[in-house]
Amino acid sequence: MQRHYKAFTLFLILLASRPAFSTHIVGGEMNYKPLGNGDYEITMLIYRDCFNGQAPFDEPASIGVFDINNQLVTSFEIYLESIETIANAINSPCLIPPSDVCYEVGHYTAIVNLPPLAGGYTLAYQRCCRNHTIINIQNPGAVGATIVATIPDAAAFPQDANPVFKNLPPTFICLDAPFIFDHSATEIGRAHV
């Protein structure tokens, strides 16, 4: 019995001394574009940390569709089409970005039929957990992320699409360095917002 206790204790010490690597969701966005006859092209971008190993992207991801009263109407699956690494950009040409930071973006697309509904729809995707480097969330590894898009009532806004941001912000922003960023967005058929 004493021997098993020592072996178990050694196992726990070795397990605890191993570094724990996991990657989590950094952020995301969901967009929609009307195609006519109640069809919408839904695109979703999910950003994750790719430096410390990788938690897989959902394949497929499940999106809930809710009415104006937050009641689930339906759900659908959206499929991962590609994964790309985001270049480490920094807002100062004098500095070199750290090499131990890496972000990837997963691109998802689906076409769904959502017939006109009074009050429109809310699309929601949820995933645990947030990136461990976030400092303004307590225990980010236990906090999830929800990515949302709201499709207004098609009777009132028949050709409405949500705005899409023109640029991604730089990965790094230097302390005390001047910072100007074009955070404008474009909507199909409309000028910059």
Order of helices and strands: HEEEEEEEEE
Number of DSSP E strands? 9
Instruction: Give the overall average pLDDT.
Output: 78
- Overall geometric form: globular
What structural class should be given to the helix and strand makeup?
mainly beta
Largest sheet: 7 strands, antiparallel
Assembly type of the chains comes to single chain
Q: End-to-end distance, in Å?
A: 71 Å
Query: How much of the sequence is in beta strands?
Result: 35-45%
Q: What strand order characterises the main sheet? A: 1-2-5-4-3-6-7
Radius of gyration: 21 Å
Write the layout of secondary structure elements.
Layout: H1 2-17, E1 25-36, E2 39-49, E3 61-66, E4 72-86, E5 103-113, E6 121-128, E7 144-151, E8 164-165, E9 185-186
Task: Describe this protein with a few key phrases.
mainly beta; seven-stranded antiparallel beta sheet; two-stranded antiparallel sheet; 9 strands; 8% helix; globular; disordered C terminus
Outline:
It contains 1 helix and 9 strands. With 193 residues, the protein is mainly beta.
What features would you describe in this structure?
With 193 residues, the chain is mainly beta. Helices cover 8% and strands 39% of the residues. It contains one helix and nine strands, in the order H-E-E-E-E-E-E-E-E-E. The strands form two sheets. The chain has a seven-stranded antiparallel β-sheet, with no helix packed on it. The longest helix is centred in the first third of the chain and has 16 residues, at 2-17. It is globular and about 50 Å long. Residues 1-22 and 189-193 have low confidence and may be disordered.
